Amino acid sequence: MTTLILDPQSVPVIGMDEHLPAVPAERLTAVALRQRFANPPPWQPETRADGRDATIQAKADASVLVPLVEHADGSLHVLLTQRTAHLKAHAGQISFPGGRAEPTDADAVATALREAQEEVGLEPERVQVIGSLPAYTTITAFRVTPVVALVGVPYELRIDPFEVAEAFEVPLAWLMTPAHHRRHRIELDGAPRQFLSMPWTAVGSQREYFIWGATAAMLRNLYRFLAA
C-alpha cells in the first residue's frame, strides 16, 4: 500500500518551471480552445498517475469537470472546489467537481456533468463540453477522465456542504504559466516521489489555495496540450 502525503505544504520545493513558456494569450480564448480540442495537435501528457506509475492499479473509473468560466471581457477562469475536511478521500484538498462513475452514467462526460451538478449545482445546460484529456490515475486508485467545458456567466452554484467547503475561480492564464508551478520531492516507501503545486492567492486576499497532487497534474497536462 502506497503511503499518502498528508502535509504536502511541508514537502521541500526542488524547483520551479520559469524556464517553460506560458501558453500564449491567443490560445486561451473560448474560440481557440474549441478549435484546439476539435483539431488537437500531436502531444503527450506529462504524467498519467500519482506516485510511481507502475505501482498503481486503477480500481474504479471516475470523471471530473474542468469548468472554464468565460467572463464578459473574454478571459477564462477555472472553477475549483475545496473538499470538506471530513471526507475519507482527499479531504480538504483543492479539486475539480467530480467523482466515481455510476452504472447509470452513459460515459465519462455524463459522470462529470452529474457530479458537477450534485457537488456545486452547476446545471448541465450551462455547460458546453469541448473535449477531454487523457485519463489520470490517482494515488487512491481512481482512473479519472478530465472533461473540459466552457461555462457562461452569470452562473449560479448550489454547493453541497457535505462534500464541498467552497468554490472559487483561478485565472486560466495564471495556471497556464509554468513559472507558477512548483516541483516537490519526498522519499516515501523507500523511493522518491514528486508532485506539482500551484499555490494561488487571489488579489486582495491573504488566503492561499494550495493546488497540488492530481489536480495540479491534470492542469499541467492541460498546459502541455495547449502549449503543444
Task: Describe the protein in words.
The chain is of the alpha+beta class and 228 residues long. Helices cover 18% and strands 34% of the residues. The chain has 4 helices and 12 strands. Strands 2, 3, 4, 5, 6, 7, 8 and 9 form an 8-stranded mixed beta sheet that branches. Strands 1-10-11-12 form a 4-stranded antiparallel beta sheet.
Radius of gyration: 17 Å
The major sheet is characterized as: 8 strands, mixed
User: What's the pLDDT, averaged over the residues?
Assistant: 91
CATH class: Alpha Beta
Architecture per CATH nomenclature, i.e. the level-2 architecture: Alpha-Beta Complex
Whole-number tally of structural domains: 1
What CATH calls the topology is: Nucleoside Triphosphate Pyrophosphohydrolase
The secondary-structure element order is EHEEEEHEEEEHEEEH
Counting DSSP H or I runs of 4 or more residues, the number of helices is: 4
What sort of overall outline do the alpha carbons produce when their principal axes are compared?
A: globular
Low-confidence stretches: none
Query: What is the percent of helical residues?
Result: 10-25%
- Structural class comes to alpha+beta
Measured distance between first and last alpha carbons: 36 Å
